[in-house]
Design brief:
The complex is a heterodimer of chains A (463) and B (380).
Chain A (H helix, E strand, L loop, with lengths): L5 H12 L3 H22 L3 E8 L4 E7 L1 H32 L6 H18 L5 H22 L4 H30 L12 H14 L8 H8 L2 H11 L1 H13 L2 H5 L1 H19 L5 H19 L3 H33 L15 H15 L4 H16 L4 H24 L14 H19 L2 H11 L1
Antiparallel strand pairs in A: 1-2
Chain B lengths: L1 H15 L3 H14 L5 H16 L12 H14 L4 H12 L1 H7 L6 H26 L3 H16 L7 H8 L2 H8 L4 H11 L5 H24 L3 H18 L8 H28 L3 H12 L5 H15 L3 H13 L1 H9 L7 H14 L5 H11 L1
Classes of the chains: A mainly alpha (463), B mainly alpha (380).
Chain lengths: 463, 380
């Protein structure tokens, strides 16, 4: 339980230390993720009652089981490393915007409340509490884009806020309906979910995830956000929609099961079309944003695939979080060091910044499922599709998107880091801009060979 | 207690013609005299107190002005504890008439607007009181129509909202803040007592139409306005739409709807007092963002709980479409509230900052239980 309260220290102290706040945030979240990792291994389940609200809300409490632990571990770890990375990057950004380093006070308040609300979201034992944290994470990330974003940041942040708020309130209506059906909103006590409620929540979540057609806001928001925020938004926040779907699926899978094929095809189309759109992007961060949409299609496909699909959702969240965090941070490093965003201006950057190029390679290996924890995710999804649909057209579709991910990964690598060097001068890259990338990279490879605890923990959930 | 408060208020106001400071003291004293330890009424009292104190920002030309919010508060508190017809009528009139004077003290108010305001209010009062009497005389249908029309005129529900944008943008921000906050409680209280759960199909349709039109007119108007006080005017219209939609529920979920409506009124009042004071005296950017988020309905702020309980009661009464319209509207309001928050940079006067600070503190009510149960107990 203690691990859920360590980040409070960072929330209070980091703004006081301003410029040096990144160390406190880093240490707090590393400690949290370490403890959470032990919880994954020991498979502990716990409750903490906070308050009682009027019916049909019921008790508000925090609740941790294996699924929460795996998601919580990912969130804490990525938050820790992005905090470390924030320091040099945001110094550069503040300089660019003509702000003094005093601005770090506000930045750390927003950063810590954003990451902390995401962490608590996966430990919420009540749907209303979950919604509350969903909205707090939305508001804080909105303010971060609003204050420090690129381009037309006011408009972009508004676009992001409105779309995601729509997602949130649709889900809220669904939650209230669930509350009437069960006369409580306590997640472990929920028995059944009416179809209308499922539909509302599902609609909300495919706006947030996002699915094809609802993905308009995502490339703008993720590309124009300051890069450390992109490195939280894209890996952690959008995937939380998958977490919410997963929780409801555990309670009552009826909706997903009865529309299995339709949702699966929709997930495939999301993944496939967004994957093709990646090739048309000229802005590196926008390209990564489209690849996020494509990866979220995996989650939509996986949720239809029974038990192995559930494993697939969880592992896909972890692997995508690790991969996309590395990639956004490396895109940010290129911006911070060379000020480049356009793909046309890049090429052969491996000559100048080999460390970032190698880290990106690991990131793309995560996305395309080569030799990293991403491989495990793809394994579970394939296994699931074979169990549910058998070896047939559906399996071919899945293989198709896997190949597409690999293709766009190496297309991007070639365009950015390999090929003919453009002859930029070699510059020194601050340590904080590269070390976090390698830490995540090494962990994502290590987790493939040490996947036992995660798989065991997931087995525990199914039982 | 109310009698004693009235006596204190009258004495103080009479003497304030000579010693201006006495007006303030008498106002505060009478407000404290009607203090009840009921969370809902405590917050209403706090709002009245803030209204009274912020009147100081207009300037001390008139000492008697300070009596007006106190008078409105006494009527409001009395209305919560009485149920006989004459008292309700008196409370309604006493809570509405002081706003005429408050509008008239504003400096750059055109005569046309002042006449418009007074005419609208007098018509509203007549219709409301007539409707009230007819309902008591058992002419339910025509009575509820008249009452609803009067209510719509009085609090500014579209399509009878003509006066709201003009008055809010021309009157002094502080006067507008009192009209938008303290003056709204009594009309809704009476409407809930009289109409709640007892409406026939026709008047229910009328009510729902009013609610839906008001939400849309308010939010579209807010989206297309640029001036902060005009945005606030339209935001008030939208909020009145949310509150009146709670009247449409069935008798079973009426207590929840009542709680939701009054929490929404509180959130609206606090937001309006905060923003109007900010227009007058400036406010910190962060504080105005918190007020905006509360008005948007971001959990766990006060504005969220109002909308949450209203939506809950609507869903429980099978009015799913109305709940969806409410939610859609709360999303539509996002851009203009954020735009509103950006108008303010930092506080220019200590008094204004203090008032805005208290408003933010009330908006930060993340544990709704005390207010919720207090609403339920007042309802019974």
């Amino acid at each position: 339980m203690i691990e859920l309260f360590i980040p409070v220290i960072a929330l209070i102290l980091a703004p006081i230390f301003r410029v040096r706040g990144h160390w406190i945030t880093f240490v707090a979240y590393v400690a949290t993720s370490a403890i959470v990792f032990f919880r994954i291994v020991s498979g502990e389940v716990y409750y903490l009652k906070i308050a009682k609200l009027p019916d049909p809300i019921g008790y508000i409490y925090l609740f941790g089981d294996s699924v929460s632990h795996i998601f919580g571990f990912t969130i804490a770890l990525v938050s820790a490393l992005v905090a470390l990375y924030s320091h040099p990057y945001m110094s550069h950004r503040f300089e660019e915007m003509g702000l003094s380093s005093k601005e770090f006070g506000r930045y750390w308040v927003l950063y810590n409340s954003y990451t902390y609300s995401m962490l608590l979201l996966v430990y919420s034992g009540n749907l209303l509490l979950l919604y509350t944290f969903l909205e707090i994470s939305l508001v804080t990330s909105f303010l971060l884009i609003h204050y420090y974003g690129y381009g037309n940041r006011r408009w972009v942040s508004m676009l992001y806020f409105v779309w995601t708020h729509v997602a949130g309130v649709l889900a809220l209506l669904g939650f209230i309906l669930i509350g009437f059906e069960n006369n409580t909103l306590l997640i472990p006590l929920l028995k059944s979910i009416p179809t209308l409620a499922w539909l509302l929540v599902f609609l909300g979540m495919i706006v947030k995830l996002p699915g094809l057609g609802f993905h308009i806001w995502l490339p703008y928001a993720h590309a124009e956000a300051p890069t450390p925020v992109s490195a939280l938004l894209s890996p952690l926040t959008v995937g939380l929609a998958g977490y919410i779907l997963l929780r409801l699926y555990e309670i009552d899978p009826s909706f997903i099961l009865s529309h299995r094929t339709a949702i699966f095809i929709y997930g495939f189309l999301t993944s496939f079309v967004a994957g093709l759109l990646v090739f048309r992007q000229k802005d590196l961060k926008r390209l990564l944003a489209y690849s996020t949409v494509s990866q979220m299609g995996y989650i939509l496909m996986a949720i239809c695939l029974g038990t192995y699909g559930v494993f697939g959702v969880i592992v896909q969240y972890v692997s995508h979080a690790f991969g996309k965090a590395i990639l956004f941070m490396s895109a940010g490093s290129i911006i911070a060091v060379y000020g480049l965003r356009n793909l046309d201006d890049m090429g052969g950057l491996h000559e100048q910044i080999p460390q970032i190029a190698n880290a990106s390679l690991i990131g793309f290996m995560n996305l395309s499922g080569v030799l990293t924890v991403g491989l495990l995710g793809e394994f579970f999804i394939l296994r699931g599709v074979l169990e549910v649909f058998g070896l047939g057209r559906m399996a071919i579709l899945v293989v198709l998107v896997f190949i597409l991910s690999g293709l766009y990964s190496f297309y991007t690598m070639k365009n950015v880091f390999y090929g003919k060097p453009k002859g930029y001068e070699v510059k020194r890259v601050p340590k904080c801009l590269t070390v976090p990338l390698f830490v995540i990279g090494v962990l994502s490879i290590a987790l493939l060979f040490y996947a036992d605890p995660i798989v065991k923990a997931m087995m525990g959930v199914v039982r | 207690m109310e009698i004693l408060a009235l006596i204190v208020l009258t004495m103080g106001t009479a003497l304030s013609l000579r010693w201006k400071r006495l007006g303030v003291i008498a106002g505060i004293a009478s407000i404290l005299l009607v203090l009840r330890f009921e969370p809902l009424l405590l917050i209403v009292t706090l709002i009245a107190l803030m209204n009274l104190i912020s009147l100081d920002l207009i300037g001390r030309k008139y000492g008697t002005v300070f009596a007006l919010p106190a008078l409105m508060l006494i009527a409001t508190v009395h209305a919560f504890y009485t149920s006989d017809l004459p008292s309700l009528i008196v409370c309604f009139i006493v809570a509405s008439v002081p706003t005429y004077a408050l509008v008239l003290i504003s400096e750059d108010l055109r005569t046309k607007t002042a006449i418009k305001y007074v005419t609208f209010m007098v018509t509203a009062t007549i219709l409301f009181v007539l409707g009230l009497i007819l309902i008591y005389e058992n002419f339910k249908l025509i009575g509820s129509f008249l009452l609803l029309t009067g209510l719509a005129l009085e609090v500014g529900i579209a399509p009878l909202h003509e006066w709201v944008p003009d008055v809010f943008s021309e009157a002094d921000p502080i006067s507008a803040s009192i009209i938008a906050s303290l003056a709204k409680f009594v009309p809704f209280l009476i409407a809930f007592r009289v109409l709640g759960g007892e409406m026939d199909f026709l008047s229910l349709t009328f009510l729902i139409a009013l609610a839906v039109i008001s939400m849309f007119v308010g939010n579209i108007g807010g989206l297309t306005s640029n001036e902060p006080s005009r945005i606030l005017a339209y935001s008030t219209i939208a909020n009145m739409g949310y509150v009146i939609s709670a009247l449409a529920v069935n008798p079973l979920s009426l207590p929840v709807a009542f709680a939701g409506a009054f929490i929404q009124l509180l959130a609206n009042s606090v937001g309006k007092v905060g923003f109007f004071t900010a227009i007058k005296g400036g406010a910190n950017r962060l504080l105005s963002f918190i007020l905006s988020f509360s008005m948007i309905g971001v959990p766990p702020l006060l504005g969220f709980w109002g909308k949450f309980f209203i939506a809950t009661s609507l869903l429980k009464s099978n009015l799913t479409f109305l709940a969806i319209i409410l939610v859609v509207n709360s999303v539509m309001s996002v851009p203009y509230y954020v735009r509103l928050a950006r108008f303010f940079d930092r506080g220019r006067s200590a008094l204004a900052s203090a008032v805005v600070g208290v408003c933010v503190l009330i908006s930060l009510t993340i544990y709704p239980n005390p207010i919720y149960y207090s609403c339920l107990s007042v309802w019974r």
